[in-house]
Amino acid sequence: MGGMGVALDAVGALARRESLFRSKDVEALGVSHGWMPLATLLGVVQCVAPGIYGRAGRTYPDAAIAAVWVPRGIACLTTALELHGWRDVPKAPVWWALARTLRKPVRPPVPMRFVRIGPAAFAHDVERTTLEGVSVRVYSVERTVSDCVRWRASLAPDPSSTWWRRVEDEAQRLGIRRSASRWRLPRPASRRAADV
User: Which of 29, 32, 74, 89 could form a disulfide with 137 if both were Cys (CB 3.0 to 4.6 A apart)?
Assistant: First the structure.
């Protein structure tokens, strides 16, 4: 009985500290993930998605679940716009960027689409935000606008939709232009030019 109390206390403490966590986080505490069904049944935690647990009685957005499921990925495209406060963007699926060197996860717990990005560009313009207590990596607004224009065919936006008109307006304001087969932000002024 003491083992059960210790295990449930450890799981409850983890839920209060982490908001969302995986079975392997429980095992890192020295507690078998076999206790999770009992912890769920007793209301200590809730099963949010297969292998992902959270505080009982809370609702978690798909992007927060995705951040726990694929912590090395980055929120991009319409998901990133939503995280930056754009309220009229399509909400599903969650768009997630992965470095080409990372393996694409199988059976994601929420509807997800993945974008593969080369290692050099992958880590460029990344910010952090918190969503329901979960730290989420997300591309900056400028990078996201550029990516939305670049992957327009994958997004298949309605040209008359408010969010897409806003993306186009922002792209024009930022000076995003098409060169070769890519859309790019204008190059920053060189240091020498800035010193003059």
Answer: 74
Q: In a 10 Å sphere around its CB, with 0-12 CB exposed, 13-18 middle and 19+ buried, how is residue 56 labelled? A: middle
The Cα–Cα gap between 18 and 134 comes to 7
Start-end ranges of CATH 1.10.10 in the chain?
A: 2-55
CATH class, domain 2-55, is: mainly alpha
* The 52-55 sheet, strands edge to edge: 20-22, 52-55, 45-49
Name, in order, each residue with C-beta under 8 angstroms of 168's C-beta and a sequence gap of 6 or more.
149
14: exposed, middle or buried (Cβ count in 10 Å: 0-12, 13-18, 19+)? buried
pLDDT at site 195: 37
Name the residue among 139, 38, 126 with its Cα closest to residue 79.
139
